[in-house]
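User: Run a structure prediction on this.
Assistant: Running it now.
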Amino acid sequence: MEIDDKIINAEKIAGLKQSTKMVEAGRAKVAYAAHDAQEHVAAPFMDLCKTAKVEVVRTYSMKELGEICRVEVPTAFMVIVS
């Protein structure tokens, strides 16, 4: 899958805990939840994003999100921060 340069060059935070903190702090512009993330984990995060009016994108896999964030392991969640 082709990854948009805007995503690659943006300031990103990877992982559920850190992404949740950024959404709660109002710093998340866009949230990404991997389409292959377990629903029982993804649903509360997506609910939080909905409450905070943060768009959630579910286009990428965990492997792809890990590569986008330049981490060595797959990640289910990522946010672009302001």
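The longest strand covers residues 28-33.
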